[in-house]
Design goal:
By secondary structure, the chain is α/β, with parallel strands linked by helices. The protein has 4 domains: 130 residues, Rossmann fold, CATH 3.40.50.1390; 100 residues, Alpha-Beta Complex (Hect, E3 ligase catalytic domain fold); 134 residues, no CATH class; 53 residues. The protein contains 16 helices and 13 strands. α13 runs antiparallel to α14. It is elongated, with a radius of gyration of 33 Å.
């Protein structure tokens, strides 16, 4: 290998900054000016500039600019590197090892603005670089420890721990932003009354409400420009599950106490909403196929549920089953999920029959008395939220006592388990008090039910049907009913084969 010389160097500048919350790239722009000044001082020609803005070298995430730099060196397009500081190039030993191989294979020179020469062409230079990399790694790890401890202390004291602006709050994380907070309240109440996440996302997007601006990571690992987006089910679910909505602080998945910011939703309703959204049995619609009013709700005489399909066969029928419109001769229908030969009913007829009965039942003058469960009897003075917070504070006391050797490990574990069980019991009673039947959100006993029905989202209609009745479809009689004439364009539907059972309030 020939000894590297200083003359005639074609330099590639590498610039990186770990955090750029403003998105203005001011940090790397300053690096660029300093690196170009050093290139001029050395008499090197800048042939390329590679940049990774808002990308950490410690995290191990992809650095597209750094990969491009190595490719330039490997392929001989550049034979020198200029960086602002060695830690802009590497912080992990694996990165240094890869860079060293490329440098030694091509006799590349490295110069930095702040630390001068980085000599990776000699054993002593490599050893020095490895020591500096280890020191840098330790400093970052130590910084992470300090930040983690500070955030844990802030959580215990109910203080805001920083981060992107939460939806419903100003950038300080404490001041409520009323125009967004009202949507948090509305979404919580909608879920408690049977609305689906997807249904409320449509309401948000139709009203022009967008998520908080974020710098979303791009496919190449970099972050794009700040942008807000339309609401989707995962974002809405995460937002509603935030303990901060109820004025609580959560740390490592556990509520640790009251927060310094005010609650947007009272703790009773938030707890009930959380329990609904985390219920393993909650139905979620993840596909793009047609959603049917009675699929999974109506039942066959054999006990199995019905599924949405078509009455025909062939390509057009299969297309309809995947969500397309039924072709000529193929109509949407329900069939038994266990055995498609058990029952088959045209969806439009069965759905209309069930809908008519539901509207009639809900419009009765005594509908509320017949359908709504009695509210749990709790003492007016009972403050379940205060009880839960007192028990959470007790967990902190138990941990402090154990740390001070005031109690044994066995005592600490038993006291912690007992206290957690009491917290779960209080939270269950809190959710029970706040849970609202989907039927309670309806104008029961009024003609408004019939007028509003078509405007309800399909998920809400399904929830109403499921809370109101059981629908069982029995075998159809052979032959056509008396008086029915073929060729009239009409269809026949045997109402006697449909059994509707009314549910009692729980």
């Amino acid at each position: 290998m020939t000894e590297p010389t200083e003359t005639g160097r074609r330099a590639a500048i590498y610039e990186r900054i770990s955090s750029d919350p403003t998105g203005l790239a001011a940090g790397v722009d300053r690096q660029d000016a300093d690196c170009r000044a050093l290139a001029e001082q050395l008499g090197w020609h800048v042939v390329a500039v590679h940049r990774d803005n808002d990308v950490s070298a410690y995290s191990g995430k992809p650095r597209p600019g750094y990969r491009d730099l190595l490719n330039d060196l490997r392929e001989g397009r550049a034979d020198a590197v200029i960086a602002w500081h060695p830690d802009r190039l590497y912080r992990q030993l694996p990165d240094l090892e890869e860079l060293t191989k490329v440098v030694q294979a091509r006799a590349v020179l490295i110069r930095t603005v702040r630390a001068g020469v980085v000599d990776l062409n000699s054993a002593s230079g490599v050893m020095t670089a490895e020591i500096l990399a280890s020191v840098s790694k330790h400093e970052v790890a130590h910084s992470i420890e300090r930040i983690t401890r500070a955030k844990a202390q802030a959580a215990a004291e109910g203080r805001y721990r920083g981060g992107p602006r939460p939806f419903g709050f100003e950038a300080d994380g404490v001041t409520v932003r009323e125009d967004e907070a009202r949507w948090i309240v509305a979404a919580t109440d909608a879920i408690l009354s049977g609305e689906s996440l997807n249904g409320f996302c449509r309401a948000l997007n139709d009203a022009g409400v967008r998520t908080v601006e974020r710098r979303y990571r791009q496919s190449d690992g970099s972050k794009g420009e700040p942008e807000s987006r339309a609401w989707r089910q995962p974002e809405l679910r995460r937002m509603l599950l935030r303990a901060r909505n109820a004025g609580l602080v959560e740390s490592r998945g556990e509520i640790v106490g009251k927060a310094e910011w005010p609650a947007i939703v009272d703790e009773d309703r938030w707890t009930a909403c959380r329990d609904l959204l985390t219920d393993p049995g909650r139905r979620t619609q993840t596909g793009t196929a047609r959603v049917w009013l009675g699929s999974g709700i109506y039942r066959c005489w054999c006990g199995s549920t019905l599924k949405g399909t078509t009455t025909g066969t062939g390509a057009r029928a299969k297309a309809a089953q995947r969500g397309g419109e039924p072709g000529k001769g193929h109509v949407a229908a329900y069939r038994c999920r266990a055995n498609s030969a058990h029952v088959v009913r045209r969806a439009v007829n069965l759905d209309q029959y069930v809908t008519d009965h539901a509207i009639e039942r809900l419009s009765r003058a005594d509908a509320a008395e017949l359908l709504l469960p009695p509210r749990p009897q709790l003492e007016p003075a009972e403050d379940l939220a205060a009880q839960a917070n007192a028990l959470r504070a007790k967990l902190e006391t138990i941990a402090a006592d154990y740390a001070a050797d005031a109690i044994t490990r066995a005592q600490m574990l038993k006291m912690t388990a007992d206290t957690r069980a009491r917290i779960e019991a209080v939270e269950a009673r809190t959710a029970q008090r706040a849970t609202v039947s989907v039927l309670a959100s309806l104008p029961l006993g009024t003609p408004d039910i019939a007028e509003q029905w078509d405007g309800y989202h399909l998920d809400k209609k399904r929830a109403i049907i499921d809370a109101l009745m059981t629908v069982t479809v029995h075998r159809a009689r052979r032959g056509r009913p008396p008086g029915f004439r073929m060729g009239t364009g009409e269809t026949y539907f045997d109402e006697d084969t449909i059994e509707i059972g009314w549910r009692s309030p729980e």
